[in-house]
Amino acid sequence: MAIAVVKEHTFSWEGVDRKGSRIKGQSDGPSEHFIKIQLRKQGINPIRVRKQSSLFGKRKKPIKGQDIAIFSRQLATMMSAGVPLVQALEIVGRGHANPSMGEMVLAIKASIEGGSSLAESLAKFPRYFDDLFVNLVDAGERSGALETLLDKIATYKEKTESLKKKVKKALTYPTAVLVVAFIVTGILLYFVIPQFEQLFVGFGADLPAFTKMVIALSAFVQADWWIIIGALVAGFFAFREAHIRSPRFRRFLDRVMLKLPVVGDILYKSAVARFARTLSTMFAAGVPLVEAMDSVARAAGNIIFTEAIMTMRDQVATGTQLQLTMQQTGLFPSMAVQMVAIGEESGSLDHMCAKVAEFYEEEVDALVDNLTALLEPMIMVVLGVLVGGLVVAMYLPIFKLGQAI
C-alpha cells in the first residue's frame, strides 16, 4: 500500500490565549488540523487558521542530509539517556537549527501520538528517510533495541554524509575551474577583443592567422551569443533528462566516470566504502544478508555497482558465499574480498565490513586532498593558456608592426 507524502505549508492564524487576549501568528505544518492541535497545546484557542499563498509565503530552508544525520544522533543520544520517544522528538523538533527540519520532526511526533509507530511515521517522508533508514528503525522497534539501532543509524548517516561531502568536493572543484574559464573567455571575446579589432582596422596590413581566428570567434560570440547560451541550457536539460529517464545512458556515464583519472578512483573507492558501510550496518542490525543486499544496492551510488550487487544477491540467495560473488563481479578490490571472506569464516562479517569501509573512506579522503593540491597549478595553467592565448593573438600584429618600423 502506498504511503502518502505529508507536505508542509505555512499557515497564518488568529486565536485567544489563556488571558483572553487576541493574538496572531504564523506556524508551519502539514494541515490546518495539525496547526490547531499545536495551538491548543500551547494554551491558544484558534479562531481562524488560513494557509498562506506560496507566492508570498516565506521561503523555507531546505532539509539536507546533514540535518537528517544530526537528527539521528540527537534522537539516539536522548533515547540512550532514557528520554521517552515522544518527549525526545518534542525537544529535537523545538530546538532544531533548521525550522523546516523542526517542523517535520514535530509532524513525526504528532503521527506517533496518533497511534503510528516511529517507522511508519518516518515512512511518510520518503524524500528524507529512505527504505534503509525505515527498515532499520522498524527492526529496532520489533526487537526492543531501538536505542542501539538508532545509534548505528546515526553512525551510518554521519559516515555516509561525510563521504558524500568528500566526493562532491572532488567533483565541484574541476567543474568550478571550467565554469570560471568559460566566463573569463566569454568576457574577453565579447568586450575586450572588439576594442583591439577597431585598432587593427587602421593598420592596413594583413593580420596573422591566429589573430584572424580570434577576431572571427569574437564576432560570432557578439552576433550569436544567445545561440551559445541556448545550446548550453538545452544541453544541460537534455543531459539531465537522459540521466533520469535512460538507464543505458546512466550506465554509460557511470562506467565512463569510473575510468576517469583521479576522479574515477575517488568514485570507485567511495562506492566500495558505501557498499561495506551499508552492509555492515544492516548485518549488525540483524537483517538477513539477502534482504540487506537490496538496501546495499540502492545505496551504492553507481549503477554499475548497483547491478553487480543485485546479481550478487541472487547468487547469495542460492547459497553461494558472499566473497565468491564479490570475486566473480570483478569490481571489488582483492583486499575487500579477503576481508569479507575472513568475516564470513569467523562470523564477524559486520565488523570486517566496517573495517573495509573505514579503510576506503580514509583512501577517499587522501585522494580528495591530492586532487585539490593537483588542481591548484592546473587552474593557473588552464586560465593562463586561455587568457594568455587571447592576449598573444591581439598583440601579434602590434609586435609585427614594431618590427616593420
Please provide a written account of the structure.
By secondary structure, the protein is mostly helical. The chain has 15 helices and three strands. It has a three-stranded antiparallel β-sheet. Helix 10 runs antiparallel to helix 15 (349-404), helix 12 packs antiparallel against helix 13 (322-329) and helix 13 (322-329) runs antiparallel to helix 14. The model is unreliable at 1-5 and 54-58 (pLDDT under 50).
**Count of helical stretches:** 15
Q: pLDDT under 50 segments (min length 5)?
A: 1-5, 54-58
Structural class: mainly alpha
Give a quick account of the main beta sheet: strands, pairing sense, barrel closure.
Answer: 3 strands, antiparallel
Q: What is the radius of gyration?
A: 29 Å
Strand order of the largest sheet: 2-1-3
Key structural traits:
74% helix, mainly alpha, three-stranded antiparallel sheet, disordered N terminus, 405 residues, 3 strands, 15 helices
Question: Could you provide a short overview of the structure?
Answer:
This protein is mostly helical and 405 residues long. It has helices at 32-41, 65-80, 85-95, 99-113, 118-123, 131-143, 146-201, 209-245, 247-259, 263-284, 289-298, 303-317, 322-329, 334-346, 349-404; strands at residues 9-16, 22-29, 45-51. It has a three-stranded antiparallel sheet with strand order 2-1-3.
